[in-house]
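Page 37, continued from 36.
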């Protein structure tokens, strides 16, 4: 395979130099150019034909969001946003993912430790490689998001036997979750979600989904009692663990170390369900890089849980779902748009 051609767009010379240096450490990536603003980037994209663009959000002359909007209309190529992981940055980054950016990474600071820079470099390289592999999926994703799909009408969803739906997702997951939750009826059993997301993003992400769904979506809080018609999203700072007290399921926030390099981790959430009655649990793995959650999904399926995995054609990155399929953890492998109707049908 030829090297992945990357164009770096950032108004900071320091950031351009750091990103160039870190990406160039990987022999399969070639930084073919840098641009100081979107006008410069537009000319260099035509000239250099990069496979992936890294894009700063805050720039002079034209901001990254406006440029991304134009780029996705005229020449959709994979974009990784370089974002400040602040509350203000969160809103802009979530908007960028909605517009078609593949992923995002927090902007490196001047005083990063060597260890932090190594981790940043590994994440950056992984995200650029995943973005390069997703180019064929961008058109599908845009066509799906342009369809106005009505909410599925439940036939007769019942909430007997403490039914529970647990969903894990990562790269591409913010939009996959939007597509899924926006068509589910308000009568669903409780839904718990772990999406790999920074601490400053999770509350805003939950609020955004809440506005777009018949379900009541919120960031999970310590002690929340799971209720039908409600969705609980793991905060970006903690693993989400479910415990049973009497007939109630309770959210517990776990501050232990990352698992599979992630906190929150899908693996931790799924494993916390092993004490419950597996035949009442439905697990779902959506698009995402890596393998987080796949092994724990297999353990739950072996105990009698049901499982649905997003298929490769509709996953922006078929890492987590692909791992579940390889392990034999997937009872069904479905296109993203078929997951919601199947959940309703299965629970009805």
């Amino acid at each position: 395979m030829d090297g992945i051609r990357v164009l770096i767009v950032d108004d900071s010379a320091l950031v351009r130099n750091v990103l160039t240096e870190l990406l160039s450490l990987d022999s399969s990536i070639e930084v073919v150019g840098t641009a100081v603003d979107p006008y410069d980037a537009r000319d260099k994209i035509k000239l250099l034909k990069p496979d992936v663009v890294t894009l700063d959000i805050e720039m002079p002359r034209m901001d990254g969001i406006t440029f991304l909007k134009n780029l996705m209309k005229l020449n959709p190529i994979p974009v990784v946003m370089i974002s400040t992981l602040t509350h203000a940055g969160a809103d802009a980054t979530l908007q960028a993912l909605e517009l078609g950016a593949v992923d995002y990474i927090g902007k490196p600071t001047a005083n990063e430790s060597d260890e932090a820079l190594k981790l940043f470099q590994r994440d950056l390289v992984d995200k650029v490689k995943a973005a390069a592999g997703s180019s064929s999926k961008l058109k599908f994703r845009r066509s799906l998001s342009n369809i106005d799909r009505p909410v599925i009408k439940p036939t007769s969803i019942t909430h007997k036997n403490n039914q529970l739906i647990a969903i894990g997702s990562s790269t591409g997951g913010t939009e996959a979750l939007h597509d899924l939750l926006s068509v589910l009826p308000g009568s669903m059993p409780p839904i718990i979600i772990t999406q790999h997301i920074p601490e400053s993003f999770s509350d805003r992400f939950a609020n955004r989904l809440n506005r777009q769904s018949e379900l009541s979506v919120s960031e999970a809080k310590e002690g929340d009692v799971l209720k039908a018609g409600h969705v609980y999203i793991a905060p970006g700072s903690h693993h989400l663990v479910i415990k049973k007290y009497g007939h109630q399921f309770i959210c517990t926030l776990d501050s232990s170390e990352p698992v599979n390099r992630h906190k929150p981790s899908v693996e931790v959430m799924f494993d916390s369900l092993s004490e419950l009655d597996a035949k009442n649990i439905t697990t779902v793995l959506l698009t995402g890089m890596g393998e987080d959650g796949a092994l724990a999904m297999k353990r739950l399926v072996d105990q009698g849980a049901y499982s649905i995995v997003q298929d490769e054609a509709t996953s922006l990155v078929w890492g987590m779902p692909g791992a579940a399929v390889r392990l034999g953890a997937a009872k069904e492998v479905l296109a993203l748009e078929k997951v919601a109707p199947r959940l309703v049908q299965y629970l009805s």
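The longest strand covers residues 29-35. Flag for discussion at group meeting. The mean pLDDT is 93.
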